[in-house]
Design brief:
29% of the residues lie in helices and 18% in strands. The protein is of the alpha+beta class. It binds adenosine monophosphate and zinc ion. The site of adenosine monophosphate has 12 residues, from loops.
Length: 139
Protein backbone atom coordinates (compact mmCIF):
# COMPACT_ATOMS: atom_id res chain seq x y z
CA UNK A 1 0.00 0.00 0.00
CA UNK A 2 1.28 3.41 -0.94
CA UNK A 3 0.81 5.19 2.37
CA UNK A 4 3.17 7.87 3.65
CA UNK A 5 2.66 7.09 7.31
CA UNK A 6 2.98 3.32 6.76
CA UNK A 7 6.34 4.16 5.20
CA UNK A 8 7.33 6.20 8.23
CA UNK A 9 6.21 3.34 10.51
CA UNK A 10 8.36 0.88 8.53
CA UNK A 11 11.31 3.34 8.37
CA UNK A 12 11.18 3.47 4.59
CA UNK A 13 10.85 7.25 4.99
CA UNK A 14 12.74 9.05 7.77
CA UNK A 15 11.01 11.08 10.46
CA UNK A 16 11.97 12.75 13.72
CA UNK A 17 10.69 9.97 15.95
CA UNK A 18 10.35 10.93 19.62
CA UNK A 19 8.62 7.76 20.86
CA UNK A 20 8.04 4.28 19.52
CA UNK A 21 6.86 0.92 20.80
CA UNK A 22 5.61 -2.28 19.17
CA UNK A 23 2.35 -0.74 18.04
CA UNK A 24 2.79 3.00 17.64
CA UNK A 25 5.19 5.68 16.45
CA UNK A 26 5.21 9.34 17.46
CA UNK A 27 7.13 11.81 15.31
CA UNK A 28 7.42 15.54 14.91
CA UNK A 29 5.13 17.04 12.30
CA UNK A 30 7.20 18.15 9.31
CA UNK A 31 5.25 21.42 9.22
CA UNK A 32 4.82 22.24 12.92
CA UNK A 33 2.00 24.56 13.97
CA UNK A 34 3.86 25.20 17.23
CA UNK A 35 7.11 24.05 18.83
CA UNK A 36 6.84 20.31 19.48
CA UNK A 37 3.81 19.60 17.25
CA UNK A 38 3.75 15.81 17.15
CA UNK A 39 1.66 13.17 15.42
CA UNK A 40 1.04 9.71 16.84
CA UNK A 41 0.12 6.83 14.58
CA UNK A 42 -0.71 3.17 14.99
CA UNK A 43 1.88 1.19 13.01
CA UNK A 44 -0.79 -0.89 11.32
CA UNK A 45 -2.66 0.94 8.64
CA UNK A 46 -6.08 2.23 9.69
CA UNK A 47 -7.57 5.21 7.95
CA UNK A 48 -9.43 6.60 10.94
CA UNK A 49 -10.77 5.81 14.40
CA UNK A 50 -13.65 3.78 13.00
CA UNK A 51 -11.19 1.54 11.14
CA UNK A 52 -8.85 1.10 14.12
CA UNK A 53 -9.18 -2.44 15.54
CA UNK A 54 -10.51 -2.38 19.13
CA UNK A 55 -7.33 -3.86 20.56
CA UNK A 56 -5.28 -1.01 19.11
CA UNK A 57 -7.37 1.78 20.58
CA UNK A 58 -5.94 1.59 24.07
CA UNK A 59 -2.26 1.40 23.08
CA UNK A 60 -2.71 4.24 20.62
CA UNK A 61 -4.32 6.58 23.13
CA UNK A 62 -1.95 5.53 25.90
CA UNK A 63 0.84 6.69 23.62
CA UNK A 64 -0.97 10.01 23.16
CA UNK A 65 -0.89 10.46 26.93
CA UNK A 66 2.73 9.42 27.21
CA UNK A 67 3.88 11.72 24.43
CA UNK A 68 1.88 14.62 25.85
CA UNK A 69 3.80 14.12 29.10
CA UNK A 70 7.11 14.00 27.23
CA UNK A 71 6.33 17.29 25.50
CA UNK A 72 5.16 18.86 28.75
CA UNK A 73 8.43 18.00 30.49
CA UNK A 74 10.66 19.00 27.59
CA UNK A 75 8.98 22.17 26.33
CA UNK A 76 6.80 23.36 29.21
CA UNK A 77 3.88 24.60 27.10
CA UNK A 78 0.87 26.29 28.70
CA UNK A 79 -1.53 23.65 27.34
CA UNK A 80 -2.24 21.37 24.39
CA UNK A 81 -4.73 20.96 21.61
CA UNK A 82 -5.11 17.27 20.86
CA UNK A 83 -7.14 16.16 17.89
CA UNK A 84 -7.77 14.18 14.77
CA UNK A 85 -8.74 15.42 11.35
CA UNK A 86 -11.12 12.53 10.67
CA UNK A 87 -12.01 12.29 7.00
CA UNK A 88 -11.17 14.46 4.03
CA UNK A 89 -14.02 16.87 4.79
CA UNK A 90 -12.46 17.65 8.17
CA UNK A 91 -9.05 18.34 6.65
CA UNK A 92 -7.41 14.90 6.77
CA UNK A 93 -4.74 14.87 4.10
CA UNK A 94 -2.91 11.67 5.04
CA UNK A 95 -5.35 8.76 5.08
CA UNK A 96 -3.64 6.93 7.94
CA UNK A 97 -4.99 7.72 11.41
CA UNK A 98 -2.84 10.20 13.26
CA UNK A 99 -3.50 12.09 16.44
CA UNK A 100 -2.10 15.60 16.50
CA UNK A 101 -0.65 16.75 19.81
CA UNK A 102 -0.11 20.49 19.48
CA UNK A 103 1.57 22.23 22.40
CA UNK A 104 0.02 25.63 23.14
CA UNK A 105 1.86 28.73 24.23
CA UNK A 106 0.68 32.14 25.32
CA UNK A 107 0.44 34.39 22.31
CA UNK A 108 0.41 31.50 19.83
CA UNK A 109 -2.55 33.05 18.00
CA UNK A 110 -4.59 29.85 18.04
CA UNK A 111 -8.13 29.22 19.20
CA UNK A 112 -10.01 26.42 20.90
CA UNK A 113 -11.58 23.41 19.22
CA UNK A 114 -14.76 25.50 19.09
CA UNK A 115 -13.12 27.75 16.53
CA UNK A 116 -12.69 24.90 14.03
CA UNK A 117 -16.26 24.97 12.73
CA UNK A 118 -19.44 27.01 13.18
CA UNK A 119 -22.48 25.25 11.73
CA UNK A 120 -25.00 24.89 14.56
CA UNK A 121 -27.93 22.55 13.87
CA UNK A 122 -31.53 23.75 13.41
CA UNK A 123 -32.88 20.97 15.66
CA UNK A 124 -32.54 20.83 19.43
CA UNK A 125 -30.13 18.46 21.12
CA UNK A 126 -32.97 16.33 22.59
CA UNK A 127 -34.10 15.50 19.05
CA UNK A 128 -30.55 14.69 18.07
CA UNK A 129 -30.15 12.45 21.10
CA UNK A 130 -33.34 10.51 20.16
CA UNK A 131 -32.04 10.00 16.64
CA UNK A 132 -28.72 8.65 17.87
CA UNK A 133 -30.16 6.38 20.56
CA UNK A 134 -32.94 5.06 18.26
CA UNK A 135 -30.53 4.29 15.45
CA UNK A 136 -28.15 2.44 17.69
CA UNK A 137 -30.53 0.63 20.07
CA UNK A 138 -33.55 -0.02 17.89
CA UNK A 139 -37.02 1.24 18.96
P1 LIG B 1 -3.75 15.94 8.44
O1 LIG B 1 -4.11 17.20 7.73
O2 LIG B 1 -4.47 15.79 9.75
O3 LIG B 1 -3.93 14.72 7.55
O4 LIG B 1 -2.25 16.08 8.84
C1 LIG B 1 -1.20 15.49 8.17
C2 LIG B 1 0.02 16.04 8.85
O5 LIG B 1 1.13 15.28 8.48
C3 LIG B 1 0.30 17.49 8.48
O6 LIG B 1 0.31 18.28 9.65
C4 LIG B 1 1.67 17.42 7.81
O7 LIG B 1 2.48 18.52 8.09
C5 LIG B 1 2.23 16.13 8.36
N1 LIG B 1 3.20 15.46 7.50
C6 LIG B 1 3.10 15.24 6.18
N2 LIG B 1 4.19 14.57 5.73
C7 LIG B 1 4.99 14.37 6.80
C8 LIG B 1 6.26 13.75 6.99
N3 LIG B 1 6.93 13.19 5.98
N4 LIG B 1 6.79 13.74 8.23
C9 LIG B 1 6.13 14.31 9.25
N5 LIG B 1 4.91 14.90 9.15
C10 LIG B 1 4.36 14.94 7.94
ZN1 LIG C 1 -0.86 3.65 6.27
Amino acid sequence: MDCLFCKIASKEIPAEVIYENGGVVAFLDINPMTLGHTVIIPKNHAENILDLPDDEVEPTFLAVKLVTGMLMRALNPKGFTIGVNHGRMSGQTVPHLHIHVIPRYSGDGGGSIHSVVKYPPKEGIKETKEKIIKTNNGD
